[in-house]
Amino acid sequence: MIDNRNGRVTNANYAEYAVPVHADAPPVMDVIFVDKEDLPCP
Q: How many CA atoms within 13 Å lie on the side-chain side of 2?
């Protein structure tokens, strides 16, 4: 991870790197289905 302000690495090692896990998710999440067909890429 690089700080955009000065171009330096924010965490020099992975021991201090914060990684979100399943326990960080909210207890209830709403699922919304969009009824629209995906268009092919050009």
A: 4
The answer to the question of residue 10 being in a domain is yes
* 3 state DSSP class of 2: strand
Q: Whole-angstrom Cα distance, residue 9 to residue 1?
A: 6
In tens, the pLDDT along 13-22 reads 777 777 788 8
Residue with tokens 């924010």: 10
Residue carrying the six token digits 């896990």: 21
User: What is the total count of domains within the chain?
Assistant: 1
Domain annotation covers residue 42: no
What residues are paired with 9 via a beta bridge?
A: 2
> What is the pTM assigned to this prediction?
0.28
